């Protein structure tokens, strides 16, 4: 091992004979820390676009058929004549908002940023297994982002068949306005995005298995690394299935096949398709779509494990149980996809099987929630912004997860399927929880990424307004969903049945606008602190993991000289045998010191 360390050091010295140019350092970089920053800033830009879209369609829902100058400015005369939103563009905004938030912000922005930043630093590696592959995966992600955004400027409009793009709407170019070139660009963008994700995931898996430093056994890995590692495995298993669905859909659209089409009449004309099944597409889509929920939430849970243990100043409760729950979630997430399809004409017996596996996944999820609460219990809590967002995640994960029990039961789900109850559930358990995890990670590791501190007071403002507004938006949605209000309708004025719910829609939109506006506080804090923030010390949070043993100034290779050796697990906080309340992993065991049982 020491010989290997010696080779690495030589490579590292050799690299610095020729100075990096601007392009090799900041653009086509193969340093995992720079690639993490690229993912993060791209994810933030996509997030701003996704949130702005949601604010536009929330305004339409709260004040339907009213004229807004901003609609006309942003959407143009075609899609918002006289400032009144057209129904096609409403569906397109919902579609692209969902796509951007699920894939480009919460999958790539969260996993891409923190897997890249933390895997080599926390396992004691010089870099990823393949820096070149890492760079390619980022640039493919960037290319797919550009293609997705370019679909907004197509004359016939962007894809508007919902983020799930079910055929036949998405398969027949003549079906709706957004089924033309916008839909094709959506499919091309997703195919490239999947290639980027697979490259990244394979890199993460190989790095964790092969490049751990001396003493870093699998049971000494931080829970963050376990979460990223298992997330990458789920991605490698399930993303290719969505790729096959996208490719078959491209065939149906462009080459006259009928994988997903059968016996279709369009405006009285009999189309020549026969023999396909749109339900086949649902199976292929949700075989990725449900594991995707955990690809999004597991990294956030891993980040939370690290931050809660560090800021409670005590060991994480039930370390091995946490690992087992991550593995159980990974396994179960691949056999529950049918609960999205209870009303697709599924055999009731098969429905009961999916109900059983879905309710089963509540057990490992509950283990994680209880372990977080037990870690917080009687801890010496440091309530900094990262800690507040982590505790916020535990809250939304529990409240959002409870409604999942209703949706996971086929007999109950049929009543609220495709209503705002579903929207409320998945936004809380997956969307808001994962965003909280992302914010927590940014506040915690910002000093590591940029060598400066974020403004704590602005962080507090950001957290409290965001927390109140997130519940203000999604809590009332449960009630309008139970009242039967369908999702994806651009106005409900045609249904007198729903007139009484209009006030609730106004309330939801008001919270959304306030919450959206206060994200500007975060953006200001983030971008100004990169240049003007207080200089960071090496280990600002007094944390045990290896990334805080590297110098504040970034070097390609992470550690000058030898890579530190690991002697203990990462959660040795408040160990009575030591003077300090933290013991970094590279501190050797004292004579007679007992390894903490975990």
Based on secondary structure, the structural category is: mainly alpha
How many angstroms separate the termini? Answer: 27 Å
Mean pLDDT: 93
Helicity level: 55-70%
Beta-strand content estimate: under 5%
Q: How large, in whole angstroms, is the Cα Rg? A: 25 Å
- Tally the helices: what do you get? 18
Oligomer: single chain
Anisotropy-based shape: globular
Q: In order across it, which strands form the biggest sheet?
A: 1-2
Order of helices and strands: HHHHHHHHHEEHHHHHHHHH
Number-wise, the strands total 2
> Biggest sheet: strands, sense, closure?
2 strands, antiparallel
Q: Regions with pLDDT < 50 over 5+ consecutive residues?
A: 1-17
Task: Sum this structure up briefly.
This protein has 598 residues and is mainly alpha-helical.
């Amino acid at each position: 091992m020491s010989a290997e360390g010696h080779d690495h050091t030589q490579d590292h010295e050799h690299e610095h004979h020729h100075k990096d140019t601007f392009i090799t350092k900041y653009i086509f970089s193969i340093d995992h820390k720079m690639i993490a920053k690229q993912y993060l800033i791209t994810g933030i830009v996509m997030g701003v676009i996704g949130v702005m879209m949601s604010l536009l369609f929330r305004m339409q829902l709260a004040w339907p058929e009213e004229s807004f100058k901003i609609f006309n400015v942003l959407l143009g005369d075609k899609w918002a004549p006289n400032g009144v939103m057209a129904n096609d563009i409403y569906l397109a905004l919902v579609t692209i908002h969902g796509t951007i938030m699920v894939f480009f912000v919460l999958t790539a922005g969260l996993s891409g940023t923190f897997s890249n930043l933390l895997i080599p630093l926390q396992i004691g590696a010089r870099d990823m297994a393949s820096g070149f592959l890492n760079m390619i995966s980022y640039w493919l992600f960037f290319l797919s982002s550009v293609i997705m955004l370019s679909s907004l400027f197509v004359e016939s409009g962007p894809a508007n068949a919902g983020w799930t793009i079910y055929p036949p709407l998405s398969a027949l170019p003549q079906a709706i306005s957004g089924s033309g070139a916008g839909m094709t660009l959506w499919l091309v963008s997703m195919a490239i995005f999947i290639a980027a994700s697979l490259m990244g995931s394979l890199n993460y898996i190989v790095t964790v298995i092969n490049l751990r430093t001396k003493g870093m056994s699998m049971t000494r890995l931080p829970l963050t690394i376990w979460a990223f590692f298992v997330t990458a495995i789920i991605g490698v298993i399930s993303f290719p299935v969505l790729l096959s669905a996208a490719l078959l859909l491209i065939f149906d659209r462009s080459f006259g096949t009928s994988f997903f089409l059968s016996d279709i009449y369009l405006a009285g004309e009999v189309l020549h398709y026969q023999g396909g099944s749109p339900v086949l597409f649902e199976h292929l889509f949700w075989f990725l779509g449900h594991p995707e929920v955990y690809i999004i939430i597991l990294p956030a849970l891993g980040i939370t494990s690290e931050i809660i243990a560090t800021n409670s100043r005590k060991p994480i409760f039930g370390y091995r149980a946490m690992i087992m729950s991550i593995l159980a979630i990974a396994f179960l997430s691949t056999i529950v996809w049918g609960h999205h399809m209870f009303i697709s004409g599924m055999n009731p017996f098969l429905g009961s099987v999916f109900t059983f596996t879905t309710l089963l996944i509540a057990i490992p999820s509950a283990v994680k929630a209880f372990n977080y609460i037990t870690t917080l219990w009687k801890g010496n809590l440091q309530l900094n912004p990262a800690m507040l967002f982590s505790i916020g995640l535990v809250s939304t994960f529990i409240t959002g997860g409870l409604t999942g029990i209703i949706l996971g039961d086929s007999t109950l789900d049929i009543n609220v399927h495709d209503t705002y109850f579903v929207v409320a559930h998945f936004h809380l358990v997956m969307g808001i929880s994962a965003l909280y995890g992302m914010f927590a990670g940014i506040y915690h590791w910002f000093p590591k990424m940029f060598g400066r501190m974020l403004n704590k007071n602005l962080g507090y403002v950001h957290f409290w307004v965001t927390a109140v507004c997130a519940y203000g938006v999604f809590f009332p949605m449960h009630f309008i969903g139970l009242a039967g209000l369908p999702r994806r309708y651009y106005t409900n004025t045609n249904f007198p049945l729903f007139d009484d719910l209009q006030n609730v829609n106004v309330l939801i939109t008001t919270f959304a606008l306030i919450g959206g506006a206060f994200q500007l506080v975060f953006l200001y804090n983030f971008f100004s602190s990169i240049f003007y923030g207080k200089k960071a010390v090496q280990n600002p949070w007094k944390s045990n993991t290896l990334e805080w043993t590297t110098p504040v100034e970034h070097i390609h290779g992470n550690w000058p000289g030898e890579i530190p050796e690991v002697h203990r697990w990462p959660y040795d906080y408040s160990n009575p045998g030591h003077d300090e309340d933290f013991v970094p992993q590279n501190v050797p065991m004292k004579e007679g010191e007992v390894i903490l049982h975990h």
